[in-house]
C-alpha cells in the first residue's frame, strides 16, 4: 500500500532560494565576513592538529556547525565542545550546542594529462584498420591519425 502524498520535509528551508530572498550582495558579504571571523576565533582555541582538520560552517538557531575531515577528527572536536561553547559565549555569540558533520575535503583538482603521442606500433595498427574500411571519409580519418604518430624509435634497453 502506497501513500497518496509524500511526507512533508522536516526542513522546509532546504534547497536553493530565489535570488530575491537572498538579500543584497553587501549583506551576504558582511555575513560571510562575520562567519569567517567567528571561524578564526573558534578554531584558534583548538589544538594545532585539530584546528587544521576542522572548519566552522554555520551558526543557526544557537547551534555551531563544524565540518571535520574524518570521523576521528569529528569525535575529537565533540570532546572539545565545552571549550568551544565557552569561547563562543566569551566573544558574544549566543550558542547553546555544537554539531559536527563529517565532510571529507574535496580532492585537489588535477590538470588532465597532455595528450601523448601515438607510438609507431599504433600507427601501424591504424593503417591496417584503414585498409579494411570501405567508407572513404572514415578511411581518411584513420590515415590522418596514423600520420601524426610518433616517428622516432623508442629506445631499446641494452643488456
> What is the CATH domain class of the largest domain?
Alpha Beta
Structural class: alpha+beta
The SSE string, one letter per element, is HHEEHHEHH
Query: In percent, how much strand structure appears in the residues?
Result: 5-15%
Please state how the strands of the largest beta sheet are arranged side by side: 1-2-3
Round the mean pLDDT to the nearest integer and report it.
82
In the CATH hierarchy, the third-tier topology of the largest domain is known as GMP Synthetase, Chain A, domain 3
Given the C-alpha coordinates, what overall shape results?
elongated
CATH architecture of the largest domain: 2-Layer Sandwich
Report the helical percentage.
Answer: 40-55%
Total separate domains: 2
Number of strands: 3
Assigned CATH superfamily of the largest domain:
DnaA, N-terminal domain
Amino acid at each position: 500500500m502506497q501513500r497518496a502524498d509524500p511526507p512533508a520535509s522536516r526542513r522546509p528551508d532546504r534547497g536553493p532560494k530565489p535570488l530575491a530572498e537572498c538579500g543584497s550582495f553587501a549583506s551576504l558579504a558582511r555575513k560571510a565576513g562575520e562567519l569567517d571571523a567567528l571561524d578564526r576565533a573558534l578554531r584558534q582555541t583548538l589544538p594545532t592538529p585539530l584546528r587544521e582538520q576542522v572548519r566552522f560552517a554555520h551558526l543557526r538557531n544557537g547551534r555551531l556547525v563544524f565540518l571535520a575531515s574524518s570521523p576521528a577528527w569529528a569525535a575529537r572536536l565533540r570532546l572539545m565542545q565545552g571549550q568551544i561553547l565557552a569561547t563562543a559565549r566569551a566573544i558574544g555569540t549566543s550558542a547553546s550546542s555544537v554539531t559536527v558533520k563529517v565532510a571529507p575535503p574535496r580532492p585537489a583538482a588535477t590538470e588532465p594529462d597532455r595528450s601523448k603521442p601515438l607510438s609507431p606500433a599504433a600507427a601501424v595498427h591504424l593503417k591496417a584498420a584503414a585498409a579494411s574500411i570501405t567508407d572513404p571519409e572514415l578511411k581518411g580519418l584513420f590515415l590522418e591519425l596514423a600520420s601524426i604518430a610518433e616517428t622516432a624509435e623508442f629506445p631499446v634497453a641494452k643488456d
